[in-house]
Amino acid sequence: MANNNPCHEPNERCVLVCQHQTCLKNGSAKVLEAFGAVKIPGVQVESSGCQGQCSSGPTVRILPEETWYWQVKPNDVPVIIEQHLRCGKPVEAKLNRRVHLSWEMFSP
User: What letters, b where the CB count within 10 A reaches 16 and e where it falls short, cover 21-59?
Assistant: First the structure.
């Protein structure tokens, strides 16, 4: 089976921060900088090309669990680091609703 994780170690978690045109215009360089400023054991931060979510960027994707965050701002980064990367609980308010559907979306 191919390793789809761009991190150097196969079991390492990876934070991918889109640095393509629309995400860059919406501040993804500062988001990448904020993630890179904090060292977390077992987590690597990488810039990425387009992740196909241009209208909802800046996009942050966490591997290997495939958690997608949308409209991430630098002030969201400490919450994502503490709650998700350190404690294992995704930040519901920032989950990309196109990827992470919830039952509430289908309620009358």
Answer: ebbeebbbbbbbebbeeeeeeebbbbebeebebeebbbb
The residue count of the chain comes to 108
d(CA 75, CA 19) in angstroms, rounded, equals 18
> Do 46 and 80 contact (CB within 8 A), yes or no?
no
First to last CA, the chain: 42
- Find how far residue 25's CA is from the centre of its chain: 17
Tokens of 75: 């002030």
C-alpha span between 60 and 45 (Å, rounded): 10
- Name the residue among 40, 44, 49 with its Cα closest to residue 13: 44
- Give the tens place of pLDDT for each residue, 18-66: 999 999 999 999 999 999 999 999 999 999 999 888 888 899 999 999 9
Three-state SS sequence of 6-41: CCCCCCCEEEEEECCHHHHHCCHHHHHHHHHCCCCC
